[in-house]
Specification:
Strand content: 25-35%
Structural class: alpha/beta
Distance between the termini: 49 Å
Strand order of the largest sheet: 7-8-9-10-11-12-13
Number of helices: 10
CATH topology of the largest domain: Deoxyribonuclease I, Chain A
Bound molecules: zinc ion
Shape: elongated
Radius of gyration: 25 Å
Number of strands: 27
Length: about 525
Amino acid sequence: MKLVVLGSGTSFPHPHRAAAGYWLEAESGRALLDISADAPHRMATEDLDWVNLNAIWLSHFHLDHIGGLAPFLFGTRAAPQTQQRIEPLRIFGPAGFIKILQAIDQANHYRLLEQPFPVKLKEVEPGKEFELLPGLKSVTFSTPHTRESLAIRLKDKSGSVLVYTSDTGFADELVEFAKGATMLLTECSFRKNKPVKTHLELADAMQLANKCEPQILVLSHLYSEWDGIDLASDSHLHNFGETSVTSDIDREARLLEIGRAPKTQAAPLPGANIKVVSYNIRWRSGDDLHKLARLLKDDPEIGGAAILGLQEVDRNKKRSGNQNSAQILAADLGMYYAWAAPPAPKADREEETGVAIFSAYPLTNVRRLVLPHKGPGGRRRVALGATIKLGRSDVRVYSVHSETRIPVACKLEQIKAVINDLAHYGKDMPAVVLGDLNTWKPEAVAKTFELFAAESFHTPFDEQPTFFRRELFIPIDLKLDWIWLRNLESTSNGIDRTIKLSDHFPLWLVLRTPGEPG
Ligand SMILES: [Zn+2]
Ligand SMILES: [Zn+2]
């Protein structure tokens, strides 16, 4: 099942959040969970196949959940795109919705049910099983919100479960209903001190999520008191795999992904030495990616790393089969991960390649940094920062992919942007900055040393090349990749030149756990 959040807001008009609407793609068709007045147009802006929408689920009668139903039907009645459609549209909702739809229909003789295709209306009792889409087992639960309001639980043939609470107050029975969900899509209207019992605040949503342990938690139905709050990096949320708090209209928000393997490995115990690897994987995919995962487990040099920073990691690009490489690697390695990409230089371009951090420990305060200075064609680069708890102290880790084709001074400012972000966490915060800093020229190497040294960083690596390419049969060695440390010590390090998956070589070092006696 695939879910697209069309509206993470409420009935109050908001510049970045539309009212409720969730597009669900399952094996047997397309469904819409709630249809606010914004939802019909949001389907079009997301380029979704609204023409062939098979089913609509209405959770309750508040207009931020059903206000788009009549306008949508008014549109499909006449739209050229739907004139050839023959597949029926099925609409499901609580007892009473048919009466409401008929009242609107008759108020001005709209003939909303006279469509080019059949429309089938079905009212659903609380607790009754039905199929929203063929083969998609669906069951509802009466929520403490309005008299008719229903949560829904959907299970596909593969066993994946989506629970959508819609608007609800907290109830122990809701916890039972949502248990075992693969994805929990829950309302989280307020941050704290909620003014009504018929909605959730963060503590309620967390209680629900902690008990249900979904692989993916999505918080939605957010009032404007959430504006400016970086919920995606809130430490509360990182007990779960992927947590997405979608700003539904802001595409940039989608260029940061946080997740974890369905099964995470046992992390090295605090006090154990911890291996860190940096590697520009040059968008390896498919078999190469699984091979890389095997090396990261078993290779004498890079094997057994607890923290990895990778660059050129594709998520949705044709050249790598549109595979989510970070998610695949994380699953193979049993790790937590975060991934980020720069914005595409033009809106109609495909997604850019990204950077990723993988960790045996949960990641908090995950931040995507778009680096200053555009490269050729207006291309941007990003860095990704995350905080990892190692033993008794937190360590801030950055995976950086700097631009190649800009002057050295601009490259240094890209590194500076990362160090500026680190400044938010205090001058004593132990830190690892790693990645492909694209230091092509000897001058850039020298200045990079100066810059990091001025910020109390050191590196166990000298100027040995990390990159190899033959151009016109002339071998070129370059020092492009780095691992820099602050308030951390390494016990050993190396560059693994036996691994030839990419034109870069992976770098590794072993950290002495901070706070432990050396
Ligand atoms: Zn409501
Ligand atoms: Zn609502």
